[in-house]
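Support request from a user on the community tier.

User writes: "When I paste my structure tokens into the form, the page sometimes reloads and wipes my input. The last time it worked, I copied everything first. Here is what I submitted, just in case something in the input itself triggers the reload:"
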């Protein structure tokens, strides 16, 4: 490696100091390094050209931002957990300085994850967006039922009434979709899962769809509703709006050292109820 980047969550007190320490460690190995707050996407994009690896310091929220930034250039991401759950991260914060030389030396393997591409109503004038976890069509701040009708490959499939509907990747199946009662997919799976949120009408269970499917969600509501991309970017929707979701031509590439078989052990560890602070990372 010749150049590495470090994206850190500036809301976490120790994140910037660790970013500086990792940059110094990289430079000791003859690798140039830059670091930047993860929320400063404009500056981050300027730095990304010529970057061989990005380290993400924070939690799963920071990893989602790093994934969307790096995916278009195929840059692998190493997740260092300073946040709450850290489902997608590889290292805990205290391990980072001692473990980083292994990654700089080219050790490890690539864990490639499918992403979603979402096309919003044309009136919003927003280009296609990409998500690692999920796309959600849901009610707004007012508590009321919305109706979402789903079509797959142009054919009507199902309709739901409730708080909303989640379209999740395998990575996102262990996030909001799981909290709403959906199944957990193997991380390398390319399929999608549609999971209703607090349904009162229609199917109450999740539906699994092939990754090649073209999903269209049609909203029916008399009040406010929203489309959410990875829980970080939201757009207001109106009655009759349609949201189109397909598999993205981008993928997220995570850097790993631990065995592939560790995924379910780590998932269980994260969900086993051990005491953690409630920080989105």
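"...and here is what came back when it finally went through:"
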């Amino acid at each position: 490696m010749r150049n590495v980047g470090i994206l850190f969550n500036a809301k976490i007190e120790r994140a910037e100091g660790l970013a500086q320490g990792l940059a110094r460690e990289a430079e000791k190995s003859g690798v140039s390094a830059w670091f930047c707050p993860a929320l400063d996407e404009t500056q981050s994009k300027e730095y990304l050209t010529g970057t061989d690896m990005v380290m993400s310091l924070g939690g799963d929220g920071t990893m989602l931002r790093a994934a969307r930034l790096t995916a278009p250039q195929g840059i692998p991401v190493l997740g260092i957990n300073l946040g709450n759950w850290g489902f997608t991260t590889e290292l805990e914060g205290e391990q980072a300085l001692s473990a980083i030389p292994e990654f700089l030396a080219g050790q490890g393997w690539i864990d490639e994850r499918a992403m979603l591409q979402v096309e919003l109503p044309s009136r919003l004038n927003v280009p296609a967006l990409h998500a690692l976890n999920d796309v959600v069509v849901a009610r707004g701040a007012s508590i009321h039922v919305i109706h979402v009708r789903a079509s797959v490959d142009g054919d009507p499939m199902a309709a739901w009434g409730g708080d909303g509907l989640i379209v999740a990747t395998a990575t996102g199946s262990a996030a909001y979709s799981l909290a709403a009662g959906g199944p957990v997919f193997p991380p390398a799976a390319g399929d999608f899962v549609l999971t209703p949120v607090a349904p009162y009408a229609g199917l109450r269970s999740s539906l699994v769809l092939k990754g090649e499917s073209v999903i269209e969600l049609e909203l029916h509501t008399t009040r406010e509703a929203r489309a959410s991309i990875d829980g970080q970017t939201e757009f207001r929707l109106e009655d009759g709006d349609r949201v189109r979701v397909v598999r993205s031509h981008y993928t997220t590439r995570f850097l790993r050292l631990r065995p592939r078989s560790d995924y379910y052990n780590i998932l269980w560890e994260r969900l086993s109820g051990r005491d953690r602070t409630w920080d989105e990372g």
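Agent notes: The reload is a front-end session timeout and is unrelated to the input. Residues 3-108+257-271 form a domain with the Rossmann fold fold (CATH 3.40.50.10330). The helical segments are 15-28, 41-48, 60-70, 96-104, 176-179, 263-271. Escalated to web team.
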